[in-house]
Fold:
Amino acid sequence: MDEFRAMMDPATSGASMPGAPGVGAWTPDGETTPAPSEDALIAAIGTVYDPEIPVNVYELGLIYAVEIGDAGHVAVEMTLTAPGCPSAQELPEMVRLAVLSVPGVTSAEVSTVWDPPWDASRMSEEARLSLNMF
Structure:
């Protein structure tokens, strides 16, 4: 049994194990929570709506990047429809809380970026139909 553990231990075997010893890894104490999937994160972000627009922030094209890091850390880059958006303080926090609700996420960071600037071409077809912008 000790040989097996030594063989499976990345420190002694020279092998690297994705996610070890973080999220989604097997340890001698048992399996940890799997790493969050991009689909689960997008679904959670899709529950966040701009209070002034009846479309979620993902379909509006406000989410520029979702990165899943080691040990369940998730980083999100998003923008707003305009720098003077009245929801500038609350939307990033709403996205952060939605991401934290996904199993396997241990921490989340949401950054607001302005480059490239948002425009209506970033909206999904579904969002355009909802807003009668075709």
Remarks:
- The chain has two domains: 1-32, 33-130.
